[in-house]
Amino acid sequence: MRLVKATKIHIRKATAADAPRLREVIEASVRGLQAEDYLPAQMEGALKSVYGVDSQLIADGTYLVAEVLDSNRDSGTNPGIVGCGGWSKRKTLYGGDQFAAREDSLLDPACDAARIRAFFVHPLWARRGIGSRILEACENAARGAGFTRLEMGATLSGVAFYQAKGYAALENLEAPLGNGEALSIVRMAKEFK
Predict the structure, then answer these.
(1) Order of strands across the sheet with 63-70?
(2) CA separation for the pair 39, 59 (Å, rounded)
(3) Which of 75, 93, 131, 193 has a CB 3.0–4.6 Å from the CB of 153, allowing a cystine?
(4) Which of 148, 152, 113 is nearest to 135 (CA)?
(5) How many CA atoms lie within 13 Å of 107's alpha carbon, on the beta-carbon side?
(6) Does residue 104 have a pLDDT over 90?
(7) Are 39 and 181 in contact (CB under 8 A)?
(8) What is the pTM of this model?
């Protein structure tokens, strides 16, 4: 008889020390979960010029990670990060540190929508509710900060997930990539009820 290890997923704020593992998760997520929606040149171009760790989200305390807490591990060990995502009170709709079109000025909760940003789940952990848990935590935090609306720039791979969570497509956008390609994204929004 084989013993099955109990696995618990813990959601917490990301720290600057998480950046190397976040890069690994982002790259694995893009290559493993976006291959049906984007060409290899688009994915590679996006990894170099759009996707990536956003240190401003981490500094703001609005970027979250999902990490595996294994019941067979000692509590002092570093659990593995398997997903990430955040929300922002800044104008940038999408893009990590290397994205040239960033606009980090603050949004006004009375008239602006908070941003849902940079969601990635490692493909080995996909479809286990990790993205849903991070999204719920982000929505609750944005609501707690006084926002009544949310917007995002969703990848084609994420549109169905966000629609199922109550987001509506507003417009199709093309993000230019450094290698001459473009990345199709969908600007989506949701209002709190």
Answers:
(1) 7-13, 63-70, 80-88, 114-121, 149-155, 182-191, 168-176
(2) 33
(3) 93
(4) 152
(5) 24
(6) no
(7) yes
(8) 0.90
Indicate the residue type of 81: I
Q: Please, which residues have CB within 8 angstroms of residue 12's CB and are 6 or more apart in sequence?
A: 64, 65, 67
pLDDT tens for residues 108-143? 999 999 999 999 999 999 999 999 999 999 999 999
Q: Cα–Cα distance between 54 and 59 in angstroms, integer? A: 9
